[in-house]
Design brief:
This protein is α/β, with parallel strands linked by helices and about 150 residues long. The chain has one domain (about 5-150): Mannitol-specific EII, Chain A. The chain has helices at about 20-30, 40-50, 110-120, 125-135, 140-150; strands spanning about 10-15, 60, 65-70, 75-85, 95-105. Strands 1, 2, 3, 4 and 5 form a five-stranded mixed beta sheet that branches. The longest helix is centred in the N-terminal third of the chain and has 14 residues, at about 20-30. It is globular and about 35 Å long. The chain starts with 9 loop residues before the first strand and ends with a helix.
Length: about 150
């Protein structure tokens, strides 16, 4: 998975201030990147997952994930926000970075679980979190995540 996340899937200084705005942005980008041809279906999948329980984690991170037949290929999108995003989190602090997982229905039990568990483990490491939060280089952020996926 060493090149799973590309720099073109990393977005900086996004102005979203709410979870809904962030999910809409990620859904629209999924279409622009050729991950899906239906932004509305991707957004619906993201929101359905949030209704099951927030994907807001700790330390300023969220891991929104969408599983849908409207998603053509598994992908990760990363968005760093220009300010704080209001998102229900485990530590009740705002989100600064979302690492979004987009998974086709057919890979829901395989790719989805592998990516989710690897990203969750990465977020337990302070060095990983600090590196992503400090970087303003999409290629560096992509590489940091790819390095974590390879472990």
């Amino acid at each position: 998975m060493s090149d799973f996340v590309s720099a073109s899937n990393v977005f900086l200084d996004n102005p979203a201030t709410s979870c809904d705005e962030a999910l809409k942005f990620l859904s629209d980008k999924a279409v622009e990147l050729g991950i899906s041809s239906d932004a509305a279906a991707v957004l619906e999948a993201f929101k359905a997952r949030e209704e099951e329980g927030s994907t807001g984690m700790m330390g300023g991170f969220a891991i929104p994930h969408a599983k849908s037949k409207a998603i053509d290929k598994a992908a990760v999108e990363v968005v760093k926000f220009s300010g704080d995003v209001d998102w229900t989190t485990m530590d009740e602090k705002p989100v600064k970075v979302a690492i979004a997982l987009l998974i086709p229905d057919t890979e829901a039990g395989t790719t989805h679980l592998k990516l989710l568990s690897k990203v969750a483990v990465m977020l337990m490491h302070a060095d990983f979190c600090k590196a992503v939060l400090a970087s303003e280089d999409p290629a560096q952020i992509a590489q940091t995540i790819n390095d974590g996926l390879d472990k």
